[in-house]
Specification:
Layout (H helix, E strand, L loop, with lengths): L1 H4 L6 H17 L5 E3 L6 E6 L8 H6 L5 H5 L1 H21 L5 E8 L8 H16 L3 E5 L2 H9 L3 E8 L4 E8 L3
Parallel strand pairs: 3-4
Antiparallel strand pairs: 1-2, 2-3, 4-6, 5-6
Length: about 180
């Protein structure tokens, strides 16, 4: 999804991605469900727990969303707002009951395809199984779809994003 809203050129791309990740962590931090690798930072998973699995515009503003036009420009800011509305609408429609929400999963490129992402998911997948609760996420790449399917997620919905031939998928994992 970042490719849809992040500038294409460096250093703007790096700066915007860093800013988005910081904002995501600021929103996630109060729930204490952020997981990283124990040694060097290879990846991070940020979850929102049942009862708090929806993100409000106020939370995003408090985390720094007010700087959006300065970080992305007006066109990409408009895309972000449209994407956020779509994500929240689908989220509420598809997951009306308590669930875990994977807000962000990121693995450094040099550590991808080495099991890091799966290990970062495990603490909450185990907790969700223990509690009998589903997990939910959105993603935007075919490779991510394959990764999440290997971790028990199934596609709920696929939608096209306007203007770029980009797609978004929502996925759900039932407890086992």
């Amino acid at each position: 999804m970042f490719g849809y809203i992040i500038p294409e050129t460096e250093p703007a791309k790096y700066n915007a991605l860093k800013w988005f990740c910081r904002m995501t962590l600021d929103v996630s931090q109060p729930y204490n469900q952020i997981y990283t690798t124990p040694d060097e930072l290879k990846g991070i998973a940020a979850w929102l727990p049942p009862g708090n699995a929806s993100i409000s515009m106020l939370q995003l503003l408090q985390a720094g969303l007010y700087a959006l036009p300065f970080k992305l420009g007006w066109k990409k800011s408009g895309r972000f707002m449209s994407l956020f509305s779509l994500i929240e609408e689908r989220h509420h429609q598809e997951m009306p009951n308590p669930h875990w929400y994977l807000f962000m999963l990121g693995v450094a490129p040099s550590y991808q395809n080495q099991g890091v992402g799966s290990k970062l998911l495990q603490p909450i997948l185990k907790q969700a199984d223990s509690d009998g609760l589903p997990c939910y996420l959105q993603t935007s790449t075919e490779s991510a779809i394959r990764f999440y399917k290997r971790n028990g997620f199934e596609i709920l919905w696929k939608g096209e994003l306007p203007g770029d031939n980009a797609c978004i998928w929502t996925m759900k994992r039932e407890p086992v």
